[in-house]
Amino acid sequence: MIDVDTEPTAAPNYHLDRASARTPEEREAMFQRYMELSAPYFAKVEAEGDQPWWTTEDERRELFFKRWTRPAPPAGMPRMSLAEIRGEHRRWIPVIPIIERNSAA
User: Which of 12, 26, 38, 57 could anchor a disulfide with 22, C-beta 3.0 to 4.6 Å?
Assistant: First the structure.
């Protein structure tokens, strides 16, 4: 049952978790944290005679930072503005002065 007498909580700041909200320093810190947390796993993989999927740290870094790179648009895709996508160029605008002038005649 919902308690309506309590104060509402603050709205969650989900937008702060987006990749675009991260600074390069935060991204680098996240990568270093990822490296720390995955080191025991990959050490165990190597201890059991297997090879990790990566060969160099640069390869891992490149894959990790791909989440913050925007892919290039497909070849041949026409460039469109946001106004065109939204259809703002097709919105009807009433022309009242013309209607008034025609009805007065």
Answer: 26
Domain range spanning residue 93?
14-69+80-104
Is residue 27's pLDDT more than 90? no
Model confidence at 88: pLDDT above 60: yes
- Asked if the model's pLDDT at residue 96 lies above 80, the reply is no
User: Which two three-digit tokens encode residue 69?
Assistant: 């790179």
Residue type, 48: E
How many domains does one find in the chain? Answer: 1
Q: Does 100 reside within a domain?
A: yes
Render 20-39 in DSSP notation, one character per residue: GG--HHHHHHHHHHHHHHHH
Q: Nearest CA to 41 among 29, 22, 54? A: 54
Q: How far apart are the first and last CA of the chain?
A: 68
Whole-number percent of the chain with pLDDT over 90: 22
In a domain, 6, yes or no: no
| 1 domain-assigned | no
